[in-house]
Design brief:
Radius of gyration: 26 Å
Helix content: 25-40%
Number of helices: 17
Largest sheet: 9 strands, mixed
Bound molecules: zinc ion
Strand order of the largest sheet: 13-7-8-12-9-11-10-14-15
Structural class: alpha/beta
């Protein structure tokens, strides 16, 4: 299959533009360059540079090559592979074929490295970089480092303008994710709660793949995420006032509203029910993705069904590997526990799952009691008794008995980990459970926190993790 590429300008984009560079000692990478390129692992990377100093006699071709070799070597040491460095040694009056924005080098890459130019990008600090993108049907990203700020007014063709190479990587990753979603692929993305495994909510085929990859029962509904509260009316058959108030107060944020589903919502998203869960997440990367995509993204947590929810991109890769088409890496999730689910399908609102917005906050907003439903005839994510389960057996004990119980188990020769109150704080709970699994312990001992504020959600997840399983996976 043909690969998308990123063609990177060198001076002013990856490294500081200090005039005509003649040796390695003059090379100074922008601080964010290496982290940015590491995130572009799905792309074939090339450097395309105009070195008119050679034609003008300021530098020898060998000196330009030494600088290029050094840049490639430094990147290789950081685990980043550059497929080729394309260097035009001419000046504009030479009327050569290879000077930017002439398409010579990207065409070479297309021929020699099986590159799909239509899904590729050119990043640079000069208008000719964006023009080069335009010339080959790729997308241009213009950085304001180097000469970028100075020449910005000369930018005549459409391109995305960003601060630096780090922001350019954001744009590229996001555009790539949107393209995959539009082609009915599946993408893992960060939200403030946990990482989600997303598909176009209107594509039955894509949503079906999410169920398949997760190993999730088809009767379990997915939450539809979108980028703006005003889209709520497109997904709900009607929007009660209580929903408007909660959305206004908590969106974007960790709150899911269950409303009567509009007829456009595919049955596979609702699990065959006539209601649908809707949310606008707060994570800037999720919001930007949803706004660029424009539609709804149906997404459960990006882990195998019944397992601990992922709060880093690395968790997602460990769990799902190549089953997911792309992972947008947004670092660790800030809330770290799933959204609160509130049902507004009947006269009396109810919390179907405690989460990142507290019961107290919801009650204060609606000016009434909102009970946590013990049983409900609306099926929601995370409602099964056994869920969020690490491989180790989770045992809940009162705080004062923690050490004694651990000691008893250790005397029997068992591997035990005790989770402190700090370890079960909402934003680290799932990471703590994963770490215990990674350490290979048999028992995780923990105490549920008081059931107020976010403690309600933590206690809920711990109880579900602790529920005895009939079979050991
Ligand atoms: Zn040339």
């Amino acid at each position: 299959m043909k690969k998308p590429a990123v063609f990177l300008d060198r001076d002013g984009t990856l490294i500081e533009d200090a005039g005509f560079l003649r040796d390695a000692a003059q090379v100074s990478f922008y601080p964010q360059a290496i982290a940015a390129l590491r995130r572009l692992g799905d792309f074939a990377l090339f450097i395309v540079t105009n070195q008119c100093g050679i034609a003008k006699g300021h530098i020898h071709p060998e000196e330009a090559r030494a600088v290029n070799d050094h840049v490639v070597r430094r990147l290789a040491e950081a685990g980043i592979s550059i497929r080729a460095v394309y260097c035009c040694p001419h000046e504009r009056s030479d009327d050569c074929e290879c000077i930017k924005p002439k398409p010579y080098f990207p065409r070479l890459a297309e021929r020699d490295h099986e590159i799909d130019l239509a899904s590729s990008f050119v990043v640079g600090d000069h208008p000719c970089d964006v023009e080069l993108a335009h010339a080959v049907g790729a997308k241009g990203v213009y950085v304001l480092t180097g000469h970028g700020a100075k020449h910005r007014a000369e930018l005549r063709v459409p391109g995305t303008v960003v601060a630096d190479i780090g922001a350019a990587a954001d744009v590229i990753e996001r555009a790539h994710a949107v393209a995959i979603l539009r082609a009915e692929g599946i993408v893992a993305f960060p939200t403030e709660t946990v990482y989600g495994l997303g598909a176009d909510a209107l594509s039955e085929a894509a949503v079906r793949r999410v169920f398949h990859v997760k190993g999730r029962p088809a009767t379990h509904p997915l939450i539809v995420h979108f980028g703006d509260a005003s889209l709520m009316a497109e997904w709900a058959a009607y929007v009660p006032n209580a929903a408007r108030r909660l959305a206004e107060r908590f969106w974007p944020g960790p709150l899911t509203l269950v409303l009567p589903a509009s007829t456009r919502v595919p049955a596979i998203v609702t699990g065959g029910q006539d209601s649908v869960g809707l949310r606008v997440p707060r994570h800037p990367m999720a919001l930007a993705l949803l706004r660029e995509f424009g539609g709804g993204i149906a997404a459960p947590s990006a882990n195998r069904f019944g397992r601990v929810s992922p709060t880093t991109a690395e968790h997602v890769r460990q769990d799902l590997g190549s089953d997911v088409d792309f992972v947008l890496d947004g670092g660790a999730c800030a809330v770290g526990i799933e959204s609160t689910i509130v049902s507004l399908t009947s006269e009396i609102p109810a919390i179907l799952r405690p989460g990142g917005v507290t019961q107290e906050e919801i009650e204060a907003t609606l000016g009434r009691k909102v009970p946590v439903a013990q049983t409900s005839n609306v099926r929601t994510p995370g409602q099964m008794k056994t869920h969020y389960a690490p491989r180790a057996a989770v045992v809940l004990v009162p705080p004062e008995e923690l050490e004694q119980r651990a000691e008893e188990l250790r005397k029997q020769g068992r591997q035990v980990r005790v989770l402190s109150a700090k370890d079960v704080a909402p934003h680290v709970l799932f990471t703590s459970l994963r770490r215990a699994d990674d350490a290979g312990v048999e028992f995780i001992l923990a105490s549920a926190p008081p059931e107020q504020g976010l403690g309600l959600a933590v206690a809920d997840r711990l109880r579900k993790a602790a529920h005895p399983r009939t079979s050991k996976e």
